[in-house]
Amino acid sequence: MLPRKYASGSQKRNKRKRIDEVIKTQKGAINKFLIPSSSSSVKEVDLIENEEVDATIENENENENENENENENENENENEIEIEIEIENENENENEKLHIEIDDVALNIFDPRTWDNIDNKTRDILIEKGPLREYNLTFPVDELGRHFAYSHYTRKLPNGENQDRKWLVYSKDVNKVYCFCCKLFKSCQSKSLLANEGLNDWKHIHDRLKTHENGVEHINNMRTWIDLHIRLKRNQTIDRDLQLHIKKEKEHWKQVLVRIIAVVKCLATRNLAFRGDNEKIYQNNNGNFLGLLELIAEFDLVMQEHLRRVQNKEIHYHYLSHKIQNELISTLASKVKNDIVKKIKEAKYYSVILDCTSDISHNEQMTLVIRCVDMTSSSIMIKEYFIEFISVDDTSGLALFNEIQAALESLGLDIDNVRGQGYDNGSNMKGKHQVVQRLYTLFASSTKRWKILQDHLNQFTLKSLSTTRWESHINSVTAIITQPNEIREALFELARVSDDAKTRSEAESLATNELENFEFLLGMTIWHNILNKTNLISKKLQSKDMQIDVAIVILKGLISYFEKYREDGFQSALTLAKELASKMEIDPIFPPKRMIRRKKQFDESCQEEITLSDEEFFRINYFLVIVDIAILSLKTRFEQLTIFEDIFGFLFPHKMLSLWDSDKLHKCCVKLQDALKHNDKFDIDAEDLYSELQVLQMCLPSETKSLGEVLEFVKVSDCFPNVSIAYRILLTIPVTVASAERSFSKLKLIKS
After folding, report:
1. Which of 100, 250, 306, 701 lies 20 to 30 Å from 2, alpha-carbon distance?
2. Are 500 and 443 in contact (CB under 8 A)?
3. Rg (CA), the chain
4. Which of 692, 672, 693 is nearest to 683 (CA)?
């Protein structure tokens, strides 16, 4: 029986499985191209030579094509990732049994447990960089209750001085310590645990370290380490020319990577697409990423040389593939998120702002925004950070709480420090009249109809009603109320030129039954006034640094305006509607309504029913209903603010400066202490807060008008800790969920 000339289905599946396992193990491998540092600057990027997984797959495909007529025998070393394949052929027709062992040396070269079989290049890099130490680690405890401590990094001399053990390295992955120099320069006869598999005998670690550092082998390895470090620094090694070439290449790749990261940052911050139809340089439609690199190469010699090497196929690993782009995006995103989480942890107290909507694939997405007070900057700033979109299947209260709790735990944030929550529980505004949307739909359904509308309008064009944005409602109503005569003429023109009977009927109906209806004009006038005032306040409340005391004052003013408008606003709206009717040559009368009379029973009195005029009927059943709904909505949606005012109100500057009653101030402090209690823990001490506020009242400048100014003064004074905590919590409380709603504009950019 002749051997196969092609791979069987089982062999292909096994090969695909091997490739997927290799790709999975390389997740996050881009981190080894970056030096661990607290700085986020891309200038500190350093390159460590490594091969991509793309080469692994390509090499395997090339070998398969070369051996197409032979049985596959895959036993290769692939780019610092050692893959051992054991093939057991019991007979010719049996499938190959494959065993893959993937070494994770390339995952973290700074981990001493991976230094058993490293080449000279990697060793030279480690010597140049030196041993790395991670601080703020929590060391695991063994069965005896002992663990490694940072004090072991220091050796105490007999005269009381301390000497740093620079050679001691801790591996957090295996919870063991190693000797840096002995691990790199150990001899074959070395039996020290610090030079081989590592030491974790925490009970006797002090004696073990003392014995090791006094040993002859350790001292010789220390001398070798220091001598090689000096020679590498001075370029005086035996392979000096080779080291100079390596250093030059390292600098070249460093500069290339800096430029690649700069392009990734540029495209990512502007929400621009990276890839095009192909991924080849100097070809049409190869995407923004390669296009920008080509543009940089026109003026930059480093990138010009890099693209020349790629074009001439002098290098195979060019770091321009889509996988590198994705890894760099993930790395930058992770860095940004870590910086945000770091600021939130420094602020300690924070609030969560949530909102839900469906994406383009009709999946429910919840946006998570966190609000906190940034005390690290020179001036105090209120920040609202977008964290992520979370896909949710169940929108019940318990399910959303579980999702929030899981998200906060993944970020390392303590849920006990949440001091405020913001949710969007409002419903969309739905009016009685759909004329506004009907007008827009009629003209927008055809370019010819829209041209007729544009020829008649001079100021505003018609706008569609949005289901979420208040501003769209005011824009839609404004376009009609400011130019009703022009819209009517456009409708008549459309009815004359249209060949469609349905369109002619719709246009004539809107022109005669709606725009020439005095009741419709009066309704639009009332809506315009209500929406205009509401929109002004809404824009003010949507600012990210809006403070609760300012919001309360603004909302109280809006509610007072609507209560006054309820009493005397109808007559002013009626006057404006009559002026519009006069310009349009329409009689300012209400359409007659059929009187409905109820049949009276024999035992009822003969007193006649009170008959309302058409004007009074409209005022009671339309005007008062709309205004009452507006007032009730404002009071209901922001009723929580009144609760916060009752708890924190005495901290508002205008109240605190005028609150001199000691008993009342003390009661307010006790009430605030009880409100900020959680699990028998208090954020503030009422007695200390009371004493601090008494002093603060005496020294706080009289021109202080906002909560931020008070906290700024307290921060500079640095002697009112309880007051500082109280104001930080107060400023953390969100007023609106506008930041969450703004994030939905970017939801369409997410593909997966």
Report:
1. 100
2. no
3. 37
4. 672
Nearest CA to 651 among 723, 544, 551, 547? Answer: 723
Which ranges of 270-347 does DSSP label H, i.e. alpha helix?
287-297, 301-311, 322-347
pLDDT confidence band for 339 (50 / 70 / 90): very high
CA distance 693 to 690: 5
Q: What angle do CA 613, 615, 618 make, to 5 degrees?
A: 105
Question: Taking the mean position of all CA atoms in its chain, how far away is CA 370?
Answer: 9
pLDDT at 41: 37
Cβ neighbourhood burial of 472 (10 Å; 0-12, 13-18, 19+): middle
Please report where in the chains the tokens 């035996």 appear, as a residue: 238
In degrees, rounded to 5, the angle at the alpha carbon of residue 277 between the alpha carbons of residues 271 and 281 is 90
Coil, helix or strand at residue 506 = helix
Helical ranges in 548-652 per DSSP H: 548-583, 614-618, 624-637, 639-648
| DSSP H or E stretch at residue 356 | strand 350-358
CB–CB of 461/476 below 8 Å? no
- What pairing do the DSSP bridges indicate for beta strands 81-82 and 154-156? unpaired
Quick count: other Cβ atoms within 10 Å of Cβ 155? 15
Are the CB atoms for 556 and 550 separated by under 8 Å? no
Tokens of 141: 């405890």
How does pLDDT run across 206-250, given as a tens digit for each residue?
889 989 988 889 989 898 888 888 888 777 665 666 767 778 888
CA geometry: angle 372, 410, 342, nearest 5 deg: 40
Let me know how long the chain is.
Answer: 752
Between CA 285 and CA 278 the distance in angstroms is: 7
Give burial (CB, 10 Å; 0-12/13-18/19+) of 722. Answer: buried
Provide the residue type at 500 as one letter: D
Q: What is the pLDDT of residue 288?
A: 92
On whether the CB atoms of residues 451 and 498 are closer than 8 A, the answer is: no
CA distances from 333 to 264, 265, 268, 346, 369 (A): 11, 10, 9, 20, 16
In whole angstroms, give the CA distance from residue 627 to residue 470.
Answer: 16
Domain boundaries, the chain: 9-107, 112-234, 240-328, 348-424+738-749, 435-594+611-628, 639-732
Within 13 Å of residue 658, how many CA atoms lie on the same side as its CB?
Answer: 6
CB atoms within 10 A of CB 524: 24
How distant, in Å, are the alpha carbons of 53, 59, 305, 441, 448 from that of 325?
14, 22, 20, 43, 46
Q: What is the value of pTM for the model shown? A: 0.62
Which amino acid, one-letter code, is at 274? F
Q: What tokens were used for 642?
A: 């009144």
